[in-house]
Amino acid sequence: xxNINNYIAILFLSVIFFSCSGGGPSxxxxxxxxxxxxxxxSLDIPSSILSVNKTAxxxxxxxxxxxxxxxxxxxxxVNQENTEEYQKEKQIINEILKxxxxxxxxxxxxxxxRGTIKYLGTDESIDEVIVFGSSDEDGFALIRVLxxxxxxxxxxxxxxxxENGSIDASGIEGQLKGIFxx
Length: 182
Hints:
By secondary structure, this protein is an alpha+beta fold.
């Protein structure tokens, strides 16, 4: 009888463990696991690196800007020695992003450059925005945009502010360009 109780307890704990694990790594786990990998460059960039002309922003754009707190960047620079590893890592990320919890905002294709923008959360409140862009010649960048009370419509106004020059993203662009120029 004691053995049966032990088996039931082990079975119960196994079911709980495997149901909580979700089957594959989360994007956050992927970032943590690859943080120290020599093929990757990892950066945490605060939103304060953006130069903002607050007088040129609408109230909605100010709200959108203030909702973004930081960007987690993970980049892989491909070269002749790590092409197989690059393809493997790109496939892992694509598999993670296929999960239904990541909702698609946009797909980008420009020649050899491919990208996708997805988000976690609801239509009313975004928990994080994920940008994944790749090029077989250059490598890939995976960016998590983290913030508080981010809203889909606010992200659109933030992109508009970037486009019209109210927000100068050259600081972030310089950080990202430096990754791929080295």
